[in-house]
């Protein structure tokens, strides 16, 4: 007969018992989760990472000892992790390796560098020529990366006004650059 602290079905009765339940849950659920994730992620390494993250979150949650269905809670954690991964992947830029296959057909010349520098100078001048409020809104959006709602809140104006200022800035800058 096993000592009570090693009984996986035992109810939590203290610090050691909760750890034993988590250990038993890991041994029981991790292989199943790995198989399920491996089929979806097509990578055993990614599947292992998600399983480890799921159990780390389970251990970090304060509610683990009072759970009636820890398997269901664990499944929810795994699904949330998959949602987070897919959101991050959607926002991530595509990786293009720098090698002979991806080299541009023609190299940039000194003339290209001069033209680029002149374009930047004209762009900066066009931004500086904007009316003060339009320039402020445009720079908050393009340089600081703030969203329209954040800009509206910060400046005490409506979102429609922010949209108008950004649109106006783009039109004026486009005209200055001849586009």
Which characteristics define this entry?
179 residues, elongated, 7 helices, disordered N terminus, single chain, mainly alpha
Word description of this protein:
- The structure is a single chain.
- With 179 residues, the chain is an all-alpha fold.
- Helices cover 68% and strands 0% of the residues.
- The longest helix has 27 residues.
- The protein is elongated, with a radius of gyration of 28 Å.
Q: What gap, in angstroms, lies between the N and C termini?
A: 83 Å
Q: What does the average pLDDT come to? A: 80
Give the C-alpha Rg: 28 Å
Low-confidence stretches: 1-14
Which sheet architecture does the biggest sheet show?
none
* Structural class category: mainly alpha
Helix content, binned percent? 55-70%
N-to-C order of helices and strands: HHHHHHH
